[in-house]
Design goal:
This is SIGNAL TRANSDUCER AND ACTIVATOR OF TRANSCRIPTION. The protein is an all-beta fold. The chain is built from one helix and 24 strands.
Length: 338
């Protein structure tokens, strides 16, 4: 099973979830195999390595071996029917050391040909390794005749989502936001007579950064940068984040946004001042309630200091990066889609 990414187009019908993947192979008949999948890493510090993405199960005997393995900085493709003594140390495998960028979808492809193993990352060939013909002959004559390539499941510490998407804030769309030299957004908020409407666009993208034509409900909330917890209501019992529609304010809980053709424009107000919250910084978190828990379907704004209209944002609080910032407080997940 392959994927098509030519001309920057992803054909979603070509993909299945990793947990549903199973491919039976007759070794003597099928010499050439190619597969590809998307991977999304949240936090590589808390995962357990090595992680087997696809394993090969021998149908003739009750044994199995890894086929594709992700180590901390290396992805390895093992040959078919190889007796793996050490899954991360094989002279007859194709390996490449790569620093997987966090919070990004990466396209991984591989080919198992008659005499070569080949790995692709984002469409580029990154590793080629000749296969040992003597080893193959030995296994073809004495080893199992059939094997099944089987995808990992939740029990293996991996999660699947189909198709590969991410939610993002279009920073070019923001208005009524003053960004300081420290990268913090200064937004005028507070009492109803003082707070200003600011706007930003949210877009649902595929890994090629193209908007996906989807209609989904989205929800925005105001959280603290240092721990990700919700900002409290004001002393007047107002919700901290409000939606403005035709000049009328609504609690953001009562008026969620909606993606149309993969894009939503949000007009928001903040009622809570940073000075009323021990000068802590805020952040807007946007998520899709239907897919809660998938971190690539969550988007976060820059850190925000909410100031009163009379306050000069250039002389307000300074931002010291917390030990646990908004994006890093997410727990590690590996999201795999074949």
């Amino acid at each position: 099973m392959g994927s098509r990414i030519n001309n920057n187009v992803i054909n979603i019908k070509d993909y299945i979830l990793l947990k549903d993947f199973r491919m039976e192979i007759e070794v003597e008949k099928e010499k050439n195999i190619s597969l590809s999948f998307w991977v999304y890493l949240i936090d590589s510090d808390t995962t357990k390595f090595p992680a087997t993405i696809i394993k090969q199960a021998h149908l003739d005997i009750t044994s199995s071996a890894p086929f594709i393995v992700l180590n901390e900085k290396m992805i390895t493709l093992f040959p078919l029917l190889h007796e793996h003594k050490e899954t991360t140390n094989s002279s007859n495998s194709a390996s490449v050391e790569i620093k997987f960028p966090l919070e990004n979808w990466i396209h991984v492809g591989f080919e198992v040909l008659t005499d070569i193993l080949r790995l692709h990352i984002n469409g580029e060939i990154v590793s080629e390794q000749p296969q040992s013909s003597s080893l193959d002959k030995n296994w073809n004559s004495n080893g199992p005749r059939k094997i099944a390539l089987v995808g990992a499941c939740a029990d293996d510490g991996l999660q699947g989502y189909d198709p590969p998407l991410w939610l993002s804030i279009d920073l070019s769309s923001t208005s009524e936001i003053d960004e300081g030299n420290d990268g913090i957004w200064n937004i005028v908020g507070g009492k109803a007579s003082c707070r200003r409407v600011f706007s930003l666009d949210v877009v649902l993208l595929n890994p090629m950064r193209q908007a996906i034509d989807k209609e989904l409900e989205i929800f925005a909330s105001l959280i603290y940068v240092d721990n990700g917890l919700p900002v409290e209501k004001t002393s007047d019992d107002e919700d901290p984040l409000l939606t403005s529609c035709d000049g009328i304010e609504f609690s953001n809980y009562d008026r969620p946004g909606k993606l149309l053709h993969g894009r939503a424009s949000l007009k928001l107000k903040i009622s809570q001042l940073s000075s009323k919250c021990e000068n802590r910084l805020f952040c807007i978190k946007i998520e899709i309630p239907k897919f809660s828990g998938y971190h690539f379907l969550e988007a976060f704004s820059h850190p925000i200091r909410c100031i009163s209209r009379s306050r000069n944002p250039r002389t307000s609080l300074t931002w010291k990066r917390p030990t646990t910032a908004v994006e890093p407080f997410n727990k590690f997940q590996s999201i795999w889609t074949i």
